[in-house]
Each structure stands twice: as structure tokens, then as C-alpha cells.
Amino acid sequence: MRLLFFSVIVLVQITAIEISEEYDRCKKEGFGNETLVCDLDNRLSERTTAKLNFLLNDLRDSVPCKCETGCKREDGRGGYFGLLMITDSKM
Q: Which residues form the signal peptide (predicted)?
């Protein structure tokens, strides 16, 4: 039981590090500024990436800000979005 628990902790730590590194790579490639889709492994076609960007931009623009102080980020922009990382397409 202890070995299994240790394995789970190590796996979670490695996964967290990988996610952080992938997010940093996405930011360097313009994620959140030029694009709302980051596909580091190039699994998506250009058409799919463009369609996802269109849909995410439309969703972002249609969700109203309900914060009393406004929805400004540190860089002064008002857009906001969530982050979804898919690491495996197998279900």
C-alpha cells in the first residue's frame, strides 16, 4: 500500500511539472494573446485550430464581466478565459 501511495505522489508531481512546462511553452508561442489554442504536439489540423480559436473568441466576447471592479488583467486587457489541457485523446 505504501509503494502504491508513493507512486501516486510521484506521478502527480511529475504531471504538475509537465503541465507547468507545457503552459510556459504555450505562453512563449503566443497562447492567450495571438491564439486561444495551444497544440504543442500538432495533433489538430489548421482548420480545427482556427475553428476552435473562433469559437473560443466568440465565447469570450459573449460572456459578460460581473466583477464590481471590472475584469482587467495586469496588462490592462479585459479579456479572460479558462485553460483546458488535454493530454490524451483516448477515452
A: 1-16
For 84-88, what is the mean pLDDT?
Answer: 60
- The number of folded domains in the chain is 1
User: Structure pTM?
Assistant: 0.56
19: which 3 cell numbers?
503541465
In sequence order, what are the residues at sequence separation of 6 or more whose Cβ sits closer than 8 angstroms to the Cβ of residue 89?
A: 43
15-49 pLDDT, tens digit per residue, is 666 777 887 888 887 777 778 888 888 888 899 88
d(CA 38, CA 25): 9
Nearest to 36 by CA among 79, 87, 90: 79
